[in-house]
Write a structure and sequence with these properties.
It is built from 6 helices and 8 strands. It is α+β, with helices and mostly antiparallel strands and 149 residues long. Strand 3 and strand 4 form a beta hairpin. The chain starts with a helix and ends in an 11-residue tail after the last helix.
Length: 149
């Protein structure tokens, strides 16, 4: 089994068509044959999850105490901002208008693999974000932040 079969990796630059459809990277498609859940992501991108991964998220959300305001707000933000989609025969998904507005998506988008999910970014915003992370990335060896290497 290749790494691509288990995780979403890489940076891809497909185009969003006039109807809001997006060709997903070929290597992503087998994992999404049963469908995909798109949701609002942090930094104003769109998160894409397999059905199984999203079900796990919802199950964990249901364990949160509804009497806690932060818990209620998290559940609302996740579930209200989520849409289940299916790939068409060409390997495209429709990105709902609300998510296109949220992430400021236009024709030029960047799809990045993020391990157990993928993210869809406005390409200009992705380039800005990526550039802003170059120095923090270089400083990760300083002992602060996540140490995985």
């Amino acid at each position: 089994m290749s790494l691509d079969a288990k995780h979403f990796i890489g940076e891809h630059t497909p185009k969003l068509d006039e109807k809001g459809r997006l060709f997903l990277p070929v290597k992503f498609r087998p994992r999404l044959a049963e469908g995909v859940v798109l949701m609002r992501g942090q930094e104003r991108c769109v998160f894409g999850w397999t059905i199984d991964a999203y079900q796990g998220i919802v199950e964990r959300l249901q364990e949160l105490p509804f009497t806690n305001r932060d818990s209620r707000n998290l559940v609302r933000m996740v579930t209200a901002g989520s849409f289940e989609e299916t790939l068409d025969k060409q390997g495209r998904i429709l990105i709902p208008p609300k998510l296109r507005e949220w992430a400021l998506l236009d024709r030029d988008v960047t799809v990045i693999g993020a391990g157990n999910r993928f993210e869809i970014w406005n390409s200009a915003r992705w380039d800005e974000f990526f550039e802003s992370q170059e120095e923090p990335w270089a400083d990760l060896s300083g002992g602060e932040g996540p140490a995985i290497f």
